[in-house]
Design goal:
Layout (H helix, E strand, L loop, with lengths): L5 E4 L2 E4 L3 H12 L4 E5 L14 E2 L8 H19 L11 E5 L2 H16 L5 E4 L3 H4 L9 E5 L3 E2 L2 H12 L2 E4 L5 E4 L5 E6 L2 E4 L3 E3 L5 H7 L7 E10 L9 E4 L1 H7 L6 E8 L5 E7 L10 H14 L8 E11 L6 E4 L6 E5 L5 H17 L14 H5 L3
Parallel strand pairs: 1-12, 2-3, 2-13, 3-9, 5-15, 13-20
Antiparallel strand pairs: 4-8, 5-7, 6-7, 10-11, 11-12, 14-17, 14-18, 15-16, 16-17, 19-20
């Protein structure tokens, strides 16, 4: 292969300028490393720009992902004190509701297990739900209030993390190859504009992370999972928190390729109400689905009847980077020396970005990580199936 000119030499190249890549760049730079970030599009041009900005613990069962979320909750609080207010960090909390008694029992059991793992929560009977959210539909059986849930404006959060990192940005430059030394170790990436040289490359390429891994000859089975969001006209604060139906948790954990949707409604500091959430595996098909939009609107107005007469100003869709076991791939890849992965967070990447960045920085510097990284090892999928 013809050698390209060198654009940059650094300690690490991060591929992906979404919020996960930005957090990796930020914490790597905080660890004393020089960082270059490359993306074939703009900052937050992929999944991050199509996200709602959720920073959630409420939807995660006890285990590695919840541990990652609890750490990220603390780190986002620190970042909010360091980054400009434009990131719109808001500790508004979440409310999960059950429509009937059969749904309330599993929700109570789920939240009790979360409490044992360090999640703060308060059970609310049906007659107290409207104290928390005055515009909720009457007659719901009960719910659980999660004060640790928060929100940011994801694209601005990514942009300000990158700015604070001091990383050199190479936008609109697609990675076409991974460069290796004669011994097989990575030494950088190739783009049409030139080479970016570094002894470490972080794969934070979101839904395209599997393709980047393939350039190194390794398999990380990231697949896209499409979702839609409706955005209403600006409103007074009719929805105070992130409010969702209890069946949303089951949708998140499901591996089904079929369309799933459950009401997720939240107000924002800027005024519009965001309405989700749908999930379906349809590849990168961007065909507008009127069926999904109608279903989301109907489910939202069932939770908040006040929204029935509100105008939807726009809709957008994005693709969550899905891995089969619903855990991200984070850390060094022993199959490709010098390659680290920070991908496969599905719909939780914005919330889990800071803890992911901390784990990557620890791996890059050979220092102890903030939590056990073994559940996220990138090669785990090869261990489960033949090559």
């Amino acid at each position: 292969m013809r050698h390209g000119r060198c654009l940059d030499t650094s300690d690490v190249v991060v591929v992906g300028a979404g919020v996960v890549g930005a957090a990796c760049a930020y914490y790597a730079a905080r660890s004393g490393l020089s960082v270059a970030v490359v993306d074939r599009g703009p900052v937050a041009g992929g999944t991050t720009g199509a996200g709602e900005g959720n920073l959630l613990v409420s939807d995660k069962e006890p285990g590695p992902e919840l541990d990652l979320a609890l750490l990220s909750t603390r780190l986002w609080r620190e970042l909010a004190a360091e980054l400009p207010p434009e990131i719109e960090y808001e500790t508004k909390g979440g409310l999960v509701v059950a429509a009937d008694e059969p749904g309330l029992g599993p929700l109570r059991a789920f939240s009790a297990a979360q409490s044992d793992a360090g999640v703060h929560r308060t059970e609310l009977p049906g007659d107290r739900l409207r104290d928390a959210e005055p515009h909720l539909a009457p007659g719901l059986a009960g719910g659980v209030l999660y004060p640790q849930d928060a929100q940011v404006q994801p694209a601005l959060a990514a942009a300000h993390l990158l700015r604070a990192s001091g990383a050199r940005l190479h936008l609109g430059a697609e990675v076409t190859a991974l460069l290796t030394s004669p011994g097989g170790a990575l030494r950088g990436v190739r783009t049409p504009r030139g080479d970016l040289l570094a002894p470490a490359v972080v794969n934070a390429a979101g839904t395209w992370a599997g393709e980047l891994a393939a350039l190194a000859g390794v398999r990380v089975p990231v697949r896209p999972r499409r979702g839609y969001v409706l955005v209403t006209e600006p409103l007074p604060r009719v929805v105070r928190r992130k409010v969702y139906a209890a069946d949303y948790v089951a949708d998140v954990a499901s591996g089904s390729a079929a369309l799933q949707s459950s009401a997720v409604v939240e107000g924002t500091l800027a005024g519009p109400v965001l309405i989700g959430a749908s999930r379906e595996r349809v590849g990168f098909d961007r065909t507008l689905s009127v069926e999904v939009l109608r279903r989301l609107a109907a489910q939202a107005t069932a939770l908040f009847p006040v929204l029935a007469g509100v105008r939807v100003m726009r809709t957008y869709q994005g693709f969550r980077p899905y891995l089969p076991d619903h855990l991200p791939a984070i850390g060094p890849d022993p199959r490709a020396p010098g390659l680290l992965h920070a991908c496969g967070h599905e719909g939780a990447g914005i919330g889990l970005a800071p803890a992911t960045g901390r784990l990557i920085a620890a791996a890059l510097t050979g220092t102890p990580g903030p939590l056990e990284a073994k559940p996220f090892r990138p090669e785990r999928f090869e261990e489960r199936s033949p090559a």
